[in-house]
Recover the amino acids of this structure.
């Protein structure tokens, strides 16, 4: 959210969902200004047809949600979700903001990003913590937990974590979001070809869509997930 | 983790075989496991218990930490025989329930008090080697603060027997049990002891090249702790493979320099030669430099210990 030009571009990328980020790609000093921009960005991006989510920091949930809960917001990604209580608290805050700001009750969805061991440990409880939880993702678990490639090119621990997440999502009745990246890719710099392969493998084990960072990744993701149809691009 | 121990290499040896025990100090291990379990025949168990007290200073005089492995079914008498000054950790094989770990903790606590050992210093290594153990990993790992490092088997022999899993195959047959144990360890903030999959289709436990490749693969995954081995030929490979190389250290320093260029800007990452430099890379680089320094200090400590033994021998 600190890069207005990227937000305009994102709107035209062809993704099903645009995620406006306040966490990963915004440095601390830019956060207040970034928050102020969300309301306008929602109008711009949702006008282009896709759904718009915002990625928030659960440790700044009050400020981030106040900045994001405006007409046009479809859902939020909770970065580094670790406890079911965080989700119930965020859900309650959203309920209050929906009421105050004339949004339809209960419509803002939640996608917890389980990026830490603690979050994955409590995945099932987190996925069931609120009716708003629509999907779950491992987000940047490989980076947050510092999981690197094994000689087989699998990212250490990720085959286990991905399958666990997919089972948890199925059991909780929510959408598993992700792709099966292999070395040397971890998502950020992946070529369109490798992005397609990661998505194809991901779909084969049960993922139903994934998030990416570059516009060039949207088309291969849409192609790979064609019938299950969910991709999100970060703005 | 309060204090990171450098435990890259280790040898497990029967306490009843003097030629192993007497030479252990020369092997360059970070730890030596004095075994009362699988390598000791049934009829020698009682004799074996009587040897541990003297074996502890003997195996650790070259700078290795002295550990011991007791028998699952003889927890009380074995623990009585091994809790002596100098012992750092007790490996409890085939742990299946948290109650076992708590019971072991109580016995150690009593013996530490009776035998003048600083309370709480002897660790428990709760080995996960059965299906029941895997089903209870989290409860087991948090059953005692003495459990500081955790993982499901770096080798897999006992687990393979319990589950009917083949040992020497060319794909990772332990994704789930290793994953469960590692997630438990990480959830609790314990040291992670596991091994990335490297095919061993021959079943060799003494191949130094394979030991090196396995340890290097672990290091590249960011793993730091070794599971040890049975044959002295693997020790050097484990020590070297789990120690950052000069190139690793150089690379980490450049990452930190590159990352420092982002300071004060609005960028969270930059791409340099096809590689993303961000706060995660920087954190990894800091950890690596820290680990490299700890390894260097540990190597020096062992060298000095060995030199002291050699000087002592010459004087006699």
């Amino acid at each position: 959210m600190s890069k207005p030009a990227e937000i305009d571009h994102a709107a035209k990328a062809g993704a099903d969902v645009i995620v406006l980020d306040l966490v990963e790609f915004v440095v601390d000093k830019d956060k207040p200004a970034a928050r102020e921009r969300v309301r306008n960005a929602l109008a711009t991006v949702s006008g282009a047809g896709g759904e718009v989510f915002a990625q928030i920091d659960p440790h700044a949930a009050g400020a981030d949600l106040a900045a994001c809960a405006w007409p046009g917001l479809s859902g939020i990604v909770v970065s580094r979700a670790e406890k079911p209580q965080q989700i119930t608290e965020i859900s309650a805050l959203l309920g209050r903001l929906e009421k105050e700001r004339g949004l339809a009750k209960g419509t803002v969805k939640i996608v917890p990003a389980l990026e830490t061991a603690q979050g994955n440990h409590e995945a099932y409880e987190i996925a069931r913590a609120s009716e708003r939880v629509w999907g779950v993702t491992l987000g940047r678990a490989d980076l947050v937990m510092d999981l690197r490639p094994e000689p087989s090119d699998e990212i250490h621990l990720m085959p286990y974590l991905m399958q666990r997440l997919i089972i948890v999502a199925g059991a909780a009745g929510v959408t598993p979001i992700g792709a099966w990246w292999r070395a040397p890719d971890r998502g950020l710099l992946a070529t369109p070809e490798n992005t397609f392969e990661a998505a194809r493998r991901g779909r084969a084990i049960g993922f139903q869509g994934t998030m990416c960072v570059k516009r060039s990744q949207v088309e291969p993701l849409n192609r790979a997930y064609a019938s299950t149809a969910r991709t999100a691009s970060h703005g | 983790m309060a204090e990171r121990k450098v435990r890259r290499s280790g040898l497990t040896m029967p306490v009843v075989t003097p030629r192993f025990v007497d030479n252990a100090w020369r092997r360059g291990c970070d730890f030596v496991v004095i075994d009362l379990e699988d390598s000791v025949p049934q009829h020698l168990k009682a004799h074996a218990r009587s040897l541990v007290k003297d074996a502890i200073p003997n195996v650790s005089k070259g700078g290795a930490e002295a550990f011991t492995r007791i028998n699952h079914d003889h927890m009380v008498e074995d623990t009585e025989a091994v809790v002596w000054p100098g012992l750092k950790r007790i490996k409890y094989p085939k742990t299946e329930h948290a109650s076992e770990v708590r019971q072991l903790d109580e016995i150690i606590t009593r013996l530490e008090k009776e035998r003048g050992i600083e309370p709480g210093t002897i660790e428990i290594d709760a080995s996960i080697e059965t299906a029941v153990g895997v089903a209870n990993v989290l409860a087991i790992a948090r059953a005692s603060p003495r459990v500081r490092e955790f993982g499901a088997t770096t080798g897999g022999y006992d687990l393979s027997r319990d589950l009917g899993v083949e040992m020497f195959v060319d794909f990772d047959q332990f994704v789930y049990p290793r994953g469960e144990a590692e997630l438990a360890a990480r959830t609790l903030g314990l040291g992670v002891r596991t091994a990335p999959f490297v095919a061993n289709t021959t079943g060799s436990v003494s191949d130094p090249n394979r030991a090196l490749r396995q340890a290097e693969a672990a290091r590249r995954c960011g793993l730091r702790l070794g599971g040890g081995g049975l044959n002295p030929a693997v020790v050097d490979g484990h020590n070297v493979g789990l120690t950052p190389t000069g190139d690793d250290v150089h690379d980490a320093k450049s990452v930190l320099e590159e990352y420092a260029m982002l300071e004060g800007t609005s960028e969270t990452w930059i791409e340099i030669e096809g590689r993303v430099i961000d706060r995660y890379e920087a954190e990894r680089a800091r950890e690596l430099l820290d680990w490299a320094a700890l390894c260097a200090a540990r190597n020096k400590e062992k060298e000095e210990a060995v030199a002291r033994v050699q000087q002592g021998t010459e004087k006699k």
In short: Chain A touches chain B at residues 2-3, 24-27, 29-30, 117-118, 120-121, 140, 143-152, 154, 156-157, 159-161, 164, 186, 188-189 (CB under 8 Å). Chain A has ten helices and eight strands.
